[in-house]
Design goal:
The complex is a heterodimer. By secondary structure, chain A is an alpha/beta fold. Chain A is built from 13 helices and 13 strands. Chain B starts with a helix and ends with a helix. The chains are: A alpha/beta, B mainly alpha.
Chain lengths: 319, 247
Amino acid sequence: MVMKDMDDKEKMQELIDKLKEVIKTKDNEIVGHLDKIDALEKEIMKLQKIIPGEASKIKIKREKPEDIFDPDSASAIIIKDLVKKFDDITAVNGINLEIKKGELFGLLGPNGAGKTTTINMLVGLLNPTGGTAIVGGYDVKRDLSKIKEMIGVCPQKAAVYKFLKGRENVELFGNLFEMDKNVLKERADRFFEASGLKEASNRKAKGYSGGMIRQLNLIIALINDPEIVFLDEPTVGMDPRARRKTWTFIGDLKQQDKTIVLTTHYIEEAEALCDRVGIIDYGELIALGSPKELMQKHDAKNLEEVFMKITGRRILEGV
Amino acid sequence: MMQRVLALVKMELLKLIREPANLFLNLLFPAILTLVFGLAFGGLGGGDSSLFDTMAPGLFAYACIFLIMTVSMSFTDDRENGLLKRINVTPTTSTQFIGSHIITNLFIAVLQLIIVFLLSLLMGFRPNVDVLGVIMAFIFMLFLSLCSVGLGLITATIAKSAGAATGISFVFILPQMFFGTFLPLTETTRVIAAFLPSYYVTEAITTIFNGVSPFAVEILMQLGIIALMSIVIVILGVFLFKKYGKV
């Protein structure tokens, strides 16, 4: 009997230690996100039955998204222990990150590092395997419809209807956001003018060059005047001139206090545009800071050198 | 909500007009088929009616069956080009998206029926039917096109590309073509036909065009069967596509 009690107490201690690793514990109060609590509650209840004296001291407080995200908070995006697994492959492995409102944040990493998977979870295209993320105050696991109303997504692979004219593409997506017709027209005109696609806007996208398609791809992402913009490799395939024009475009968005999450392979693009960058490799966030901070920390002349030092070392170390 | 659905319907209709393959399969193919059958079988047969007269109701169903191919191609094509993902990050719900496809395809089915009906009349088809009968025939065709949308969604769930969708859609098209339209049925094929939506539609339209009241018990029973079939197939198609269709 004594042995059994010992076993149970050890089990409880083990459980509390486990809980401490994944969620906040304050004295005997367990505070955590709903899903995590749900997953562990059965175990806690089982222990409460076995050793009521000890385990009943544990109180469970379910933390709602509002508790994680303070509406007055300076954060537009909060990522907590975000995990995505595809069968045996862990594409994103416990990322924690906060992106401030109005910040232009760059997500860098080699091919297959987990950048697009992270973005896909933030915009609701993929369900996280573990952890959660709060976008604009809403939980990606519960409030996707609210999130979708406030975001703009520019996908890596340009997705436009080729049989539609440039303007028709933009109008279609503006209507999917239920925009007012006059506002939609005014914004479309402004974007076509700024991107140099004004004349081409009345031609079918089928006849567009690769660069023009990418620009149209970007205009569609911004037409609903989103508060938070996800730009996944927006300048891939653009010539240097179009890329510079797009940089100006993105810079203007920042002036309008939009929160921008940018993934890119062009390190100089991140260095020129981003307030802060996060470097992801093998699904983990391995560096975070402003380009200047990272350069100082890693004693590098530019961000590319930082990138090569960090990701290259991990390759050599076989991480 | 309506703004989203209307925008998607407009886009799908523009796809019909501007994509040659869609235009051919949906509108030109049924028209050409009706003309060819009219020319080939219009003069054959004995008595008051020609062979074409007995084939015409099957031709209406024939046109609608091909919606399976165009719907599945449209979904897989949009998926391959990342457009389903793009729509999925807007506030558009899957009900609004699939609903817009259903509305568009019902509209196309009506267009097909008008074309086939008028061309059939031009080729000498003289149905013994009043306005109510024609309306009832339209209703049957709308249910059949609903079945085709559902089967198109099931095809798009299985198919990984638009090319594969074309091939796989024949699994649903061929049996309906051979056992559910104008070919005479044996005892064995009639058993197979009992599971095919086009069989009930062709049987009902043939009966209506032979002068039987559109509100006769057998017609209403067939209407009930095809309505039930279309609801089950569409629900199954939407469920499978949402669960396994990989946006």
